[in-house]
Design a protein that fits this description.
2 strands, single chain, mainly alpha, two-stranded antiparallel ribbon, about 70% helix
């Protein structure tokens, strides 16, 4: 594209030069049409740097940085290449952005409030160094939010990020299934660790695949006859297979909630068919494995859930410092079988209460509540592709909020990245919907 633009511009300049030479004043000496070899392309060569600079400035640094970060954040590297790319694109998008394109995002206030309270909690933590180290992923996630919300310009940019999430989900699912095939029937935690990606620490981290599944569904609805729909459909299918193989009840519940909400919001008549198809695929996968997932669900009703003891410990710890908390991730919980200790309570809301007290808990609820409210308001007024893409973001956020009750923690990189990406998408789509309403 760059060389084509330069070539077209050079041809235009040469044509205009010939036209000017043809219009010679009467009595003026005519110049020879034979140019010297050294000066034949002088004008074109001088124009190339200007065209190159102009084309570079017009590059969509926001979508490039966001998609590159999401696509590579799960790859382990000696240098944090995804973060370097994200920061570089954010700087370029800010420097070369026209002043007229800068705007205030709908969720900026609540995001800044949450980040500010988190920073204050880290400073007042009983172990500030540890809280700072474990809360560090919030920094690139916040940058991702502003890059998506402020530097995305069109619906096509949104689709590109949705497709990136779908490709990441499909690639991660295939990689997990391949590792499970190589390792044989062992613990899902072993499969997750052998995957070698920072996105997965334990087997239940496949909840990430369930949370982003509605983004693939929106692409299927928007491009039913294209390769994009095939990729998105395979992403959802492999997600169901991975969840069934990893025996993750929480991931399955999040998948049902997220895809169910997306189907109901995009096309209500499709919700029942989508739910039946999802249930059928899950039963087939579980039956092929000998119904281990169904047995795990049945065991939950006949015995005490292991997470209950963690929640009781977290609640008791919260009561010791109810207002400002003890600092993010400074408390260690002991599992019911006394064989494992962890720094998260398998409940994002209890983590906020323990680490940041009622102040941080209120900031988290305000952040999630304002995002859901904004997405719902956009859903009521948006039309066409904006409505479909916004419905998928709202459904994904709903699945995230439900999974936060029993699994999600900000210690997980995927949880931080997916949440702030969804916040940025909701802000961006709200801005587009507002522009559609005000357009003549």
């Amino acid at each position: 594209m760059l060389f084509a633009t330069a070539f077209a511009t050079c041809r235009t300049v040469q044509s205009r030069s010939r036209a000017c030479r043809a219009q010679v004043r009467p009595g003026a000496p005519r110049r020879s049409h034979v140019a010297s070899p050294t000066s034949k392309h002088t004008g074109s060569l001088r124009l190339l740097p200007q065209v190159s600079k102009r084309s570079f400035v017009r590059l969509p640094f926001g979508p490039i940085g966001a998609c590159a970060y999401v696509a590579s954040v799960g790859v382990s590297t000696a240098w944090d290449i995804p973060l370097i790319v994200l920061v570089s694109c954010a700087v370029a998008a800010t420097v070369y952005a026209p002043a007229s394109s800068r705007r205030v995002l709908p969720l900026t206030g609540t995001v800044l409030l949450f980040l500010g309270i988190t920073a204050a909690s880290v400073l007042m933590s009983s172990d500030a160094a540890q809280s700072l180290r474990l809360s560090a992923p919030l920094v690139p996630a916040a940058l991702l939010f502003f890059l998506i919300g402020d530097r995305f310009e069109t619906v096509g940019h949104t689709r590109s990020l949705y497709l990136t999430f779908s490709l990441v989900s499909l690639g991660l699912s295939c990689w997990l299934l391949w590792n499970a095939w190589l390792d044989g029937w062992v613990s899902p935690n072993v499969w997750a660790q052998h995957a070698g990606t920072p996105l997965l620490v334990v087997g239940n981290d496949v909840t990430f695949l369930a949370v982003v599944a509605p983004l693939s569904l929106a692409l299927i609805y928007g491009h039913p006859r294209r390769a994009i729909a095939a990729i998105s459909g395979l992403s959802i299918l492999f997600t169901v297979c991975v969840i069934g193989l990893f025996l993750s009840r929480g991931a399955l519940l999040a998948l049902v909630v997220s895809l169910g909400c997306a189907s109901a919001l995009i096309r209500p008549r499709l919700a029942i068919a989508c739910g039946a198809l999802l249930l059928g695929v899950t039963v087939v996968v579980d039956a092929a494995l000998g119904f281990p997932l169904a047995s795990k669900f049945a065991a939950a009703w006949t015995s005490e859930l292991p997470r209950v003891s963690l929640w009781q410990q977290a609640w008791s710890t919260f009561l010791d410092s109810p207002w400002v908390g003890h600092g993010p991730y400074t408390v260690t919980y002991i599992a019911a079988d006394q064989r494992e200790s962890m720094r998260w309570a398998h409940n994002l809301y209890l983590d906020a209460l323990v680490g940041q007290g009622l102040v941080g808990f209120a900031a988290l609820l305000l952040l999630l509540g304002s995002a859901v409210s904004q997405a719902w308001a956009t859903h009521r007024v948006a039309q066409g592709d904006v409505r479909t893409l916004n419905a998928a973001a709202l459904a994904a956020l709903s699945g995230f909020c439900v999974a936060a009750l029993y699994e999600i923690s900000f210690l997980r990189l995927w949880a931080v990245v997916s949440l702030f990406a969804l916040l940025g998408l909701i802000s961006h789509l709200a801005d587009i919907a507002r522009s559609q309403r005000t357009a003549p």
